[in-house]
Design brief:
single chain, alpha+beta, endopeptidase fold (from Nostoc punctiforme), 5-stranded antiparallel beta sheet, 7 strands, about 35% helix, globular
């Protein structure tokens, strides 16, 4: 019995360490994407499927998340498309969609929020900086219907109270202390099962 408990404890600790390592790697991949020369371009692009991407020197906030996960071998274009194809009725109707579009669906913040929530990645929204850990995804409302998304990284704000966020709001793919600058509307920790 004692050996069984020790084995179960070891397995549990190993699984926790593996998950923590994954999110540390997500953080590191997001840091690798920092490039303030990326031109903010919300234009519609026709891209290949799966593993499609818009031109590498262009992007928006969602492209930071997509490119980060792609570095980890996870294609959110494919994942979101497959989920939307099976469950289109639960995704936002903001754009008047009648069917999926592999060129753009994964590049829309409300679609990513729906996808992460459907895959049990939702975390509580708080005003406590320590609740937002490296590898987490945060979504904001910038005002009206304008949404934004970024990835929490393993670098701290000057006052050491919050982690920085890698995002693109128009100044390239940058790391900034913006966690509580806007109204948080989503907090996720996504790891493909």
């Amino acid at each position: 019995m004692k050996n069984t408990l020790l084995l179960l404890s070891f397995i549990l600790v190993s699984q926790i360490n593996h998950a923590q390592n994954f999110f540390q790697q997500i953080s590191a991949c997001a840091v690798e994407l920092i490039d303030d020369t990326i031109v903010y371009d919300p234009a519609y692009f026709s891209i290949k499927y799966p593993n499609g991407d818009i031109p590498e020197k262009k992007g928006v906030c969602t492209d930071v998340v997509i490119r980060t996960y792609r570095k980890m071998g996870i294609d959110l274009q494919k994942e979101v498309h497959e989920d939307m194809k099976q469950n289109l009725n639960v995704y936002p109707k903001i754009w008047g969609l009648k069917r999926t579009d592999t060129n753009i669906d994964h590049r829309r913040v409300p679609n990513l929020m729906t996808f992460f929530k459907r895959h049990h990645a939702e975390k509580p929204i708080t005003r406590n900086g320590s609740d937002y850990q490296p590898g987490d995804i945060v979504c904001w409302n910038l005002g009206g219907a304008i949404t934004h998304i970024g990835i929490v990284i393993n670098q701290k704000s000057d006052d050491k109270q919050r982690h920085l966020i890698v995002h693109n709001i128009g100044g390239g793919q940058v790391a900034e202390d913006i966690l509580f600058t806007y109204t948080i509307i989503g907090h996720y920790r996504y790891k493909k099962q």
